[in-house]
């Protein structure tokens, strides 16, 4: 966290994007490709890599399920963006959705149970059943949406702009009602672990845990919390309570 123990974890001739650390604390998954994007899983114990999605078109937004037995990603092999499921070997490949339209997904998130996925489009959020592929558009006005995360299995959080400031909204998936967080918060990235919640105030300051503790790290406070409309920072308490690990997805 102080920049004193930098290590090269992987080097290749391809373009690499969006490293995601496995919950086992050892492995990573990231996007790699020359012309089009592919999803690659790298095993640090065997020092081997496997393409879990490697078609002639873009395969992107690869995300681990909470239970690590599935990977979801956006694929264009049918001509339209669809959500596909596979395993870490890239063998159990299944097309989950039947969108058959021109929608463009810019963020993909599993629920903590693994039962649902959220797909953030330009001005909409889709709720997708991870078993059936059935989807619905959440009843949200057509506005720019940023920073989506699961607060719970029933509540999602996202930010919209109001009077020149970003504000956190809460959407209840059962009642379809919307409520709001205090105006002081521009974005919140929730996590199933309360210690891994990240908050950003309107002035840009970062706070951690559900108790909103100030992040005492000047360098990390200067890193952009968002990459476009997606979160760019994640907190992962891999080393036990009180230990903080933040990952910049644009490394």
**What Rg is obtained from the alpha carbons, in whole angstroms?**
18 Å
Overall pLDDT confidence: 84
Stretches where pLDDT falls below 50 for ≥5 residues?
Answer: 240-251
| Helix fraction by DSSP (H/I, runs of at least 4) | under 10%
How far apart lie the N and C ends?
14 Å
The multimeric state of the shown protein is single chain
Q: Could you give the order of strands across the largest sheet? A: 1-2-3-4
Shape: globular
Task: Please trace the helix and strand order, writing H or E for each element.
Answer: EEEEEEEEEEEEEEEEEEEEHEEEE
CATH topology of the largest domain: Neuraminidase
Please identify the top-level CATH class of the largest domain. Answer: Mainly Beta
CATH superfamily of the largest domain: TolB, C-terminal domain
Give a topology summary:
Blueprint: E1 15-21, E2 28-33, E3 38-43, E4 48-53, E5 59-64, E6 71-75, E7 82-86, E8 94-95, E9 107-110, E10 116-120, E11 125-129, E12 135-137, E13 146-150, E14 155-162, E15 165-172, E16 178-180, E17 185-189, E18 198-201, E19 206-208, E20 213-214, H1 218-221, E21 226-227, E22 230-231, E23 233-235, E24 246-248
Structure write-up:
The protein is mainly beta. The chain folds into two domains: 12-130, Neuraminidase, CATH 2.120.10; 138-251, no CATH class. The protein is 2% helix and 43% strand. It has one helix at residues 218-221, and strands at 15-21, 28-33, 38-43, 48-53, 59-64, 71-75, 82-86, 94-95, 107-110, 116-120, 125-129, 135-137, 146-150, 155-162, 165-172, 178-180, 185-189, 198-201, 206-208, 213-214, 226-227, 230-231, 233-235, 246-248. Strands 1-2-3-4 form a four-stranded antiparallel β-sheet, with no helix packed on it. Strands 5-6-7-8 form a four-stranded antiparallel β-sheet, with no helix packed on it. Strand 17 (185-189) and strand 18 form a beta hairpin. The radius of gyration is 18 Å and the shape is globular.
